[in-house]
């Protein structure tokens, strides 16, 4: 039987890989957005998106844009595909992080 530490380490590594895939795809989306839709890029604070001075309300605007599938009306198929991929990876990374945090409490509670 596997120890609780090994399970947590494996889940943590999977979560880190998926979060890094999400962030990488988000950066790619912002680069594509800068070329195909400069107004939206400016509205979501594309230049300062990953900086410490980034405007959170503008970042949330991108979250709502992708969550509500507004990119389906866009003219660029590459942009639409990147938005779809960001959405899928966000859901996947969020799920893995929740599973990791729940497993921490399960391992601590069961004493594995």
Radius of gyration, in angstroms, nearest whole number: 17 Å
SSE pattern, N- to C-terminal: HHHH
How helix-rich are the residues, as a percent range? over 70%
Please outline the major beta sheet.
Answer: none
The total number of structural domains is 1
Task: Write down the overall mean pLDDT.
Answer: 88
| First-to-last CA distance | 10 Å
Count of DSSP H/I helices = 4
Structural class, from helix and strand content? mainly alpha
Shape: elongated
Low-pLDDT segments: none
What portion of the residues fall into strands of 2 or more residues? Answer: under 5%
Number of strands: 0
Write the SSE topology.
Elements: H1 4-36, H2 38-43, H3 56-67, H4 77-110
Helix pairs in contact: 1-4
Short key terms for the protein model shown above:
elongated; membrane; transmembrane; 112 residues; mainly alpha; Universal_stress_protein_B; Universal stress protein B
Task: Report on this structure.
The chain is mainly alpha-helical. The chain has one domain (about 5-110). It contains 4 helices and no strands. The relative contact order is 0.17.
């Amino acid at each position: 039987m596997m120890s609780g530490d090994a399970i947590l380490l494996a889940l943590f590594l999977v979560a880190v890989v998926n979060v890094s895939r999400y962030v990488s795809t988000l950066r790619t989306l912002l680069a594509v957005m800068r070329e195909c839709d400069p107004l939206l890029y400016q509205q979501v604070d594309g230049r300062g998106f990953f900086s410490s001075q980034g405007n959170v309300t503008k970042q949330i605007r991108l979250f709502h844009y992708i969550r509500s599938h507004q990119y389906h009306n866009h003219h660029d198929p590459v942009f639409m595909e990147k938005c779809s991929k960001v959405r899928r990876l966000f859901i996947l990374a969020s799920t893995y992080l929740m599973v990791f945090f729940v497993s921490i409490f399960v391992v601590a509670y069961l004493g594995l």
